[in-house]
Structure prediction request, 469 residues.
Amino acid sequence: MSERLIGILADSFFKILIPGLTVTIPLTVLSFSIAMVLAVILALVQFANVRGLRELARFYIWVIRGTPLLVQLFVIFYGMPSLGIVLPAFPAAVIVFSINEAAYCAEVLRAALEAVPKGQMEAGSCVGMSYLQIMRRIVLPQAFRIAFPSLFNCLISMVKDTSLAANITVTEMFMATQRIVARTYEPLALYLEVGFIYLMFSTILTWVQRAGEKRLATYGGKRR
Amino acid sequence: MLTVKNLRKEFHGTQILKGISLEVEKGDVVAILGPSGAGKTTLLRCLNFLERADGGEMDFDGQHFQLDRISRKEIAGIRKKTAFVFQDFNLFSNKTALENVTEGLIIARKMPKAQAMEIGTRALAKVGLSDRLDYYPDQLSGGQQQRVAIARAVATDPEIIYFDEPTSALDPELTGEVLEAIRELAAEGRTMLVVTHEVGFARNVSTRTILMEQGQIVEEGSTKQLFENPREERTREFLNHFNKE
Prediction:
């Protein structure tokens, strides 16, 4: 490896990492948080069989899961201005990532809710608990534990998907890398470098997931 | 204390319960026997509104109810005075043995935590699980889980406890401990309605026995009379079948 290349890589590392910390991570955290709130609502109205809302949730999930994320980004950022709705790039990205991720997480949560044995709900009602009490104290904690690994999967996936926001002018890590490539013309080294930084982020999340699973396993899972 | 008249239930056009009437007095231990598919479990589930009956009346604790028109509030009121022990235990997996017992007291009945813990600890001691208070259901054997479920049922001091085949999901060597726990409740004078396949248990513990078949009551009477001197030929057949085993 030439000294010039090493210099470029060392020099660009922080130039890529900083937008990672200031844009990629906030974009992910913000979008995922909103997505979780939406997902819980979407999953619960289906689980509780709320007429009307259940169909609406199914429709939402059908449309969002059935269309590419990139297309959704373009519709919101480049398409909406035709209707007079002009959004800055970052908020547009947050909106799209939130509604997109919510559809996937809702399915994970719905499956988890359904995996909690129905008999426990019956037992809850037999000891006099209301539907809401049963959901809050018995079903949701167990569903969350079942859903946890899959939800983390979604989160890790999302960290990487935020690179698509470069297409709507959000200067996150990938866009920062592209700019350096344009200047230095070292695509292979620089794209590998940004890939490595994404891998670092994902690795940290994997550790967090493992620690979280260990914590959650203190109930339910057989202790040895 | 509990009177049921003409309880009817159908699933998808098939009549499962064809007009069941029964009466339970305070302190009775009523065993419900019968072949599989007789509707025993459905009857019990209708009595505690886990299934909604299509018709019939109920008198419980001095109040009268139309079973097909009963309100949610009325159901909630009745459930506060009854308890249900399931075939497959249905303990809350995310709660310890003690929490399983106290949950209904603290959350549904708003009892102070300390008092609930005391009642729960006592209830678990009575079923021989004092050393398992902090165990999760996964860490307990089937027999222990069912005993926790029994403690959970007793803790609310219900007027009547329904048992739905409480030993059917257990290995044979574990049924004894559960039957023993039920036997002790009977000795205390608890009112219980027990759907069971354990004919010997019905004979030894229950005060009254009901034999059901095809959604109807074939015969009912005092356990002694029904076992020693059955009126119906069908009862005789059913009991003989078990005596041969």
User: Anything to note?
Assistant: The two ends of chain A are 51 Å apart (CA to CA).
